[in-house]
Amino acid sequence: MADDEVTIERPGFGARLQAAMEAHGPLCVGIDPHPGLFDQWDLPHTPEGLERFTMSCVEAFAGTVAAVKPQSAFYEQFGSAGIAVLEKALGALREAGTLTVLDAKRGDIGSTMAAYAVAYLSDHAPLRADAVTLSPYLGYGSLRPAIDTALGTGRGVFVLALTSNPEGASVQHAGGPGASVAGGIVNAVREDNRKAARKGQLGSVGMVVGATTGSAVEHLELDLASANAPLLAPGIGAQGGTADDLRRVFGSALPHVLATSSREVLAAGPDVAALRSKALESAEGLRELLA
Ligand SMILES: O=c1ccn([C@@H]2O[C@H](COP(=O)(O)O)[C@@H](O)[C@H]2O)c(=O)[nH]1
Fold it and tell me: Would you say residue 1 lies in a domain?
């Protein structure tokens, strides 16, 4: 390195998320353009309808909430035209300074994970987001290329630990209290977040833990708080979870929770002002609950 060269360390995703949650409350709004919502919003089931739906969400939520989580599946079903809308939305949110979590739940052998890492977490990727969701069921170690890329570019990942759907338990609870599959994920994430913990910052390797998981965290003896991980909590609203459930599920890890809700907020559309006020109301409610 030349004498006059300085290394500027980028703030990590965890630190950026913590600041965004302090500014806006611990809510992430999901953009899930379901067919039923197209009907409710009086939009055609076409790429044009998808674009109008998505850009109304961007207008409503950019600068309003801590993070926005587009669900990739709803864009992929429209093929390249859908992906173009996703790319436009990610770019617009980035421009607005709002954090994005791309919900794509990628998981594959390491060499393929390296390509996913480039696709979503590298600096010049058209579909880059601030964080991406990952599935660890090919082994946590297979996620290494994505985790290392995220840590190197100031981005983050959310690894599935205890998902919000009832079927998840058959895999994630296996092994039982103290030795569960989910517990293995929590322990691996804790290791990856140690450096951030030493700096007093929230780590950038997050986990997904559903608001609908009842007493599973306690039953499986998962020490979520010590993992120093952002905890993305889906399941509120349409899946039956409530904000009060967050207290029961997360206990002392509550300050690390980023609750995410899609259909419940999107049902307030298509009016942009109504979408925004629904998101603000939900975020304020969560902020009070988690305080
Ligand atoms: O365990 C998980 C992981 C991800 N999701 C995703 O979150 C949203 C939830 O949408 P709602 O309309 O708020 O139910 C959706 O994109 C899921 O794929 C999840 O629900 N559970």
Answer: no
Residue 34's domain comprises 13-289
In a domain, 157, yes or no: yes
Domain count, the chain: 1
Contact residues for 111 (Cβ-Cβ < 8 A; gap 6+): none
Does 105 participate in catalysis according to the annotation? Answer: yes
Ligand 1 environment, Cβ below 6 A: 30, 32, 71, 103, 163-164, 208, 210, 234-235, 237-239, 260-263
What ipTM does this complex have?
0.99
In this predicted structure, the answer to whether residue 187 has a pLDDT above a threshold of 60 is yes
Is it the case that residue 290 has pLDDT exceeding 90? no
Query: Would you say residue 7 lies in a domain?
Result: no
Helix (H), strand (E), coil (C) string for the chain: CCCCCCCCCCCCHHHHHHHHHHHHCCEEEEECCCHHHHHHCCCCCCHHHHHHHHHHHHHHHCCCCCEEEEEHHHHHCCHHHHHHHHHHHHHHHHHHCCEEEEEEEECCCHHHHHHHHHHHHCCCCCCCCCEEEECCCCCHHHHHHHHHHHHHHCCEEEEEEECCCHHHHHHHCCCCCCCCHHHHHHHHHHHHCHHHHHCCCCCCEEEEECCCCCCHHHHCCCCCHHHCCCEEECCECCCCECHHHHHHHHHHHHHHEEEEECHHHHCCCCCHHHHHHHHHHHHHHHHHHHC
Instruction: Compute the distance from residue 47 Cα to the ligand 1 centre, in Å.
Output: 22
> CATH number, domain at 260?
3.20.20.70
Query: 1-58: per-residue pLDDT in tens?
Result: 444 456 567 899 999 999 999 999 999 999 999 999 999 999 999 999 999 999 999 9
Mean pLDDT (whole number) for 130-141 = 98
Q: Let me know if residue 2 belongs to a domain.
A: no
